[in-house]
Task: structure prediction
Amino acid sequence: MNCWEFKKCGREKGGAKEKELGVCPVYPDHGKHCARVKGTLCGGEIQGGFSSKLSNCMQCTFYHSTHYDKTYAGFNG
Result:
């Protein structure tokens, strides 16, 4: 399961908030390791890079779920 499915944020292509907030930068290839990608949505706000958003991600239910891939070696933040 990808983060947009788990969190139901609506920022995936064709999602409910695509027009308002744009397509999330994790869509379609980074939905299992979104903490490493800047520009994701958290608490209704667009987030910056990994180091600036890490504290928010550490509180995220998706980050702590079995769906999040903590082994992903790529970085986009």
